[in-house]
Every structure is written in structure tokens, then in C-alpha cells.
Design goal:
Shape: rod-shaped
């Protein structure tokens, strides 16, 4: 037990090496202990072998003494390397270091990215995807920028519409009302805008947010509240996108705005109830206006049509009366001319036309025989009425099944009931119209 404690004493400088007094000279390299199987190598021996190889690379001979360094105080002292070996070793080291330095300039650009190369901190070029090379650091450096990523941020809320950010959401309209505006902006980088995105603006993403809020406030400030709340959302979003793009291009951010989507527009919650009442009153007003307009659209065309019809009737009546008057005047003038040529013939003609007109509208006919004392009276109206009545009765009897002699009885009774012509004394024709009376009598006798 005592021997084991002495062998593994931590204060023993020869711990694990055995006794130092093996007949070696002071300052000389200790003899190497043979390595057993499955035993790890000695660290001192590994370090000593490494120093020997490194020294031989620079042309220094293997030293005989100990010391564990390039120099030593024991044995024969350090040996100076030859100049040729020194140059060869230095060249190998320089070439190896140069190769490693040049190899550090290779890099890979992924799909959807571009690499912005700077030379001594100044923009040099932009390269696309692939295996690329640049002059190694510190001459050139590359910075990868993702141009295919669609970046999104919210204005007026965060995460969901319930998490509102009122300083961003409250906006003033043209009619001096306040609306709660919540919208989303999506943007990406242009392929040629990566240098501007990196070097022209200190914080381009924050610039996009500020530009979107500024553009939305400007556009909403020029619109009425009802337009923004209802029918004008799409138009407002389009104007905001165009104005944002103009601002970002003016500041050379290299950003392209893809979409501006309005998520929610409403009045402030504090006045929501009053606003609903106002909207309801406005809707009632619009309804009543529409009803009145519909009634007006129905009545006004009808009245206009009636007025037009009355005007046309009056115009037609005027034209008819004027035409009749002109025709009567022309006819009278022609009659006067003919009367002046032969008064008696025209007088007879007028008498005949007048009598023809009178007898054509009456149902009674008086027949005056020539040189007779009696005038025959034919009651044509009574005969026509009885004939029509008999035809009606005959039709009813035929429908009831009455036929033969019994069916002819009503007709015979009607014929017997017909009044007989009465004898009326004849009256002479008016003076001066004897011939005309004879002509009339002759006409009706025939």
C-alpha cells in the first residue's frame, strides 16, 4: 500500500514515469517508456514529436536535449536551419495560407435571394442565385437579401381585430368625423432594389409602416365618412397603395407594395350607439325620398300624357272646325256661282237633297199618289219592331220544342194586330214647288 501511494503521489514530478535516476545525465532527454497495448499515448511524448516535426519543416535538426521547446539549454544547444529549407518552409506556409484565404471567398446564394457585394464597405454589385465567388475579406463582403419573401404588417391592430392600437387606428375624415380604420399591408423587395433597401434607408421596414399610415390618413382625410364606411373601401385601398408606392420610390427604399387590404372600418366605440341611430334616421330619410321619387315618376308622366292628349285633341278639333268652315265656305261660293247661272235648277236640287236627307233619317213614310185625294201612311217603325219581336218569340219557341201550326200562331196574331194604313187627305205642294212635288211623288211611287 505504501509503494502504491508513493507511485501515484501527485507531488512527484515523475508521476507515472518511474524513477528519474536511471543513469541518465541531468538535462538529457529521458528515455521513452515503451507503450503497452490499450494504453493511451503520453502527452509529453506527443508534444515532443510535434515540435520535432515542426522544426524539421524549417530545417532545424532534431535536438538531443530536453526542454520541450524550439530552444534548449541542455545537450548541444539549438541548431540553425539552412536558408534554403527556411525559404521552402515559408513558401509552403504562405501558399497554404493564400489558398485558404482565397477559398474563403466562395459562397452560395439560395433561390429567391440576391447577394449584395461591397468592396471596402462600398456597394460593388448584385449577384443572383447560385455558387458565387468574391474577393475574400477584408476586401469584399457579401450580404444576402431575401427578395421573394412577402412581408406583412398590421396597422391599427395586432394579431386580431380585438387587439386594437387606437393611436394608429383613429383617423379624421373630410366631414370632420372620426373613423376606426384597421388595414393590412403586404410588400416585397424588388430584384434591383436590394442595394437601396440596405444602404439608402436606415430602417426600411419602419419606413413602410410610417408611409402606410401617412398615406391612409391623407386619403381618408379627403373622403366623407359614409363613403369610407360603405361603398368606398376598394377605392380608398387603391389610392393608399398608389400613394405609398410614390412615397417609397421617392425615398429610394427598393420596396414594392403588393396589397393594401382594409380589414375593418367603423365609428369609435364611444359613439357607436349614436352613430347607429343616425344611420337609421338617414336610411329612413332615403326611403322616404325614394318613395316620393317613385310616386313622382308615376304621376308626372301620367299627367304629362293626359296634357299631351288634351292638346292633341284640341289641335284636332281646331283643325276639323277650321277645315269644315273652309269647306263650307268653298262649297257656298261654288253654289253661289252655280245659282247665279241657273237659279231655278239649283233651287229644285237643293229641295231634293234636303228632302232626301230628312227622309233618310226617319222611319215613317208618306206616299202621295198623283192626282189623288188620299195619302198613304206606312208605319215602318212599328212593322220593324213587330217583326223583330216575332223573330225573338219564334226562336224561343223553337228552343222549347214548339213547332208546326202552333208555332205560327204568334206570327199570325202579330200580323192581325198590325195597324192598317190610315187615309189622310192629300195636301197640295207648296207654291212654286209643283214640279218638285210631282218629282217627289213620282220617286216614292216608283
Amino acid at each position: 500500500m505504501r509503494s502504491i501511494t508513493k507511485l501515484f503521489n501527485l507531488n512527484d514530478p515523475g508521476w507515472g514515469r518511474g524513477s528519474q535516476n536511471n543513469g541518465s545525465k541531468p538535462g538529457s532527454e529521458p528515455p521513452r517508456k515503451p507503450q503497452r497495448d490499450n494504453e493511451p499515448p503520453d502527452l509529453d511524448e506527443v508534444w515532443r514529436d510535434f515540435n520535432d516535426k515542426l522544426g524539421s519543416l524549417f530545417g532545424r535538426k532534431k535536438r538531443n536535449g530536453g526542454g520541450g521547446g524550439f530552444g534548449g539549454n541542455g545537450g548541444n544547444g539549438p541548431q540553425m536551419p539552412s536558408p534554403r529549407a527556411t525559404r521552402i518552409g515559408a513558401g509552403v506556409v504562405v501558399v497554404g495560407a493564400l489558398g485558404l484565404w482565397l477559398a474563403s471567398g466562395f459562397y452560395i446564394v439560395q433561390e429567391g435571394q440576391v447577394a449584395v457585394v461591397t468592396q471596402f464597405g462600398q456597394y460593388e454589385k448584385t449577384v443572383g442565385p447560385g455558387f458565387q465567388w468574391r474577393i475574400p475579406y477584408p476586401i469584399q463582403q457579401e450580404e444576402l437579401v431575401n427578395i421573394s419573401q412577402l412581408r406583412t404588417f398590421e396597422v391599427g391592430f395586432r394579431g386580431s381585430s380585438r387587439n386594437k392600437v387606437l393611436p394608429e387606428a383613429m383617423m379624421l375624415t373630410d366631414d370632420e368625423n372620426i373613423v376606426d380604420m384597421q388595414f393590412v399591408v403586404q410588400y416585397r423587395l424588388r430584384a434591383d432594389g436590394a442595394p437601396d433597401y440596405l444602404f439608402k434607408t436606415s430602417n426600411p421596414d419602419e419606413s413602410v409602416r410610417q408611409a402606410s399610415e401617412t398615406a391612409m390618413r391623407e386619403v381618408v382625410g379627403k373622403k366623407h365618412m359614409d363613403f369610407v364606411l360603405y361603398e368606398g373601401r376598394t377605392e380608398v385601398a387603391g389610392e393608399v397603395q398608389a400613394l405609398m408606392q410614390s412615397i417609397l420610390d421617392r425615398y429610394k427604399t427598393g420596396i414594392e407594395v403588393s396589397t393594401v387590404a382594409i380589414q375593418n372600418v367603423q365609428p369609435p366605440e364611444a359613439v357607436q350607439a349614436a352613430f347607429d341611430d343616425a344611420v337609421k334616421a338617414g336610411q329612413d330619410r332615403e326611403r322616404q325620398i325614394n318613395e316620393g321619387q317613385a310616386y313622382a315618376n308615376k304621376v308626372i308622366p301620367l299627367a304629362a300624357g293626359q296634357a299631351s292628349r288634351m292638346l292633341e285633341q284640341a289641335e284636332g278639333y281646331r283643325a276639323r272646325v277650321v277645315g269644315d268652315a273652309r269647306g263650307d265656305a268653298a262649297r257656298f261660293n261654288s253654289i253661289v256661282a252655280e245659282y247665279q247661272k241657273s237659279p231655278q235648277v239649283l233651287r229644285d236640287r237643293m229641295y231634293l237633297e234636303t228632302m232626301e236627307d230628312i227622309f233618310g233619317r226617319v222611319s215613317k213614310v208618306m206616299v202621295d199618289t198623283k192626282d189623288g185625294n188620299n195619302m198613304i201612311y206606312l208605319p215602318l217603325d212599328k212593322i220593324i219592331q213587330q217583326a223583330s219581336r216575332s223573330n225573338t218569340d219564334a226562336g224561343q219557341d223553337a228552343a222549347a220544342g214548339n213547332s208546326g201550326p202552333a208555332g205560327a200562331a204568334p206570327a199570325a196574331a202579330a200580323a192581325q194586330a198590325a195597324p192598317q194604313p190610315a187615309s189622310v187627305p192629300s195636301r197640295p205642294a207648296p207654291s212654286g214647288f209643283g214640279d218638285v212635288g210631282g218629282l217627289t211623288r213620282d220617286r216614292f211611287s216608283r
